[in-house]
Design goal:
single chain, about 160 residues, mainly alpha, Arc Repressor Mutant, subunit A, about 70% helix, about 5% strand
Length: about 160
């Protein structure tokens, strides 16, 4: 594999992309600052930036970077890496970030399913609320199975398309 060279880009074009994509993420429910940071990382050739680089590019404070990165790490969209021999951290977006974010939801869905089962038992399966919870539970069980199947198909497609496993 050959090492790719950094390409000189118009900073205004990069900024427009970052803000436009971040706005789309915000529309989908992602908080604004994490959306901007995620978009900036996606738009960087290396997929990594330091807090200072993010602050400078997005004109935001170190505290804003820290809070947003914490959120993004919790939802498995970025990881933190220590620079060798330094206390500085770099934040990285991986090529499989969407895969990781979706598959990490499995634990959350399992918790929701358990809570819904308890709700059905508490409220009674034959009550209107119990039937609604039963249908909600069935939806999450269906989604869980479909996402697992879809992720398997994605791995095969990714390998064929990009040669990455």
């Amino acid at each position: 594999m050959t090492e790719s060279k950094a390409v000189e880009r118009d900073p205004e074009s990069v900024s427009r992309f970052v803000e436009h994509f971040a706005a789309q993420l915000v529309e989908a429910g992602v908080p604004r600052m994490p959306s901007r940071i995620f978009a900036a990382l996606l738009a960087s050739d290396t997929g990594t930036l330091t807090s200072a680089e993010l602050g400078e590019q997005l004109k935001i404070s170190p505290a804003a970077v820290s809070g947003a990165v914490r959120y993004l790490a919790q939802v498995h969209l970025v990881s933190r890496e220590r620079e060798p021999g330094s206390r500085r951290e770099r934040y990285r977006v991986h090529s499989d970030q969407w895969y990781e974010a979706l598959t990490s939801r499995e634990t959350i869905i399992k918790r929701w399913e358990e809570a819904l089962r308890e709700g059905v038992a508490s409220l009674g399966a034959d009550t209107p609320a119990g039937r609604r919870l039963t249908e909600t539970l069935a939806f999450f069980e269906f989604i869980e199975t479909e996402v697992a199947t879809l992720m398997d198909r994605w791995r095969v497609h990714r390998e064929k398309t990009f040669g990455q496993g």
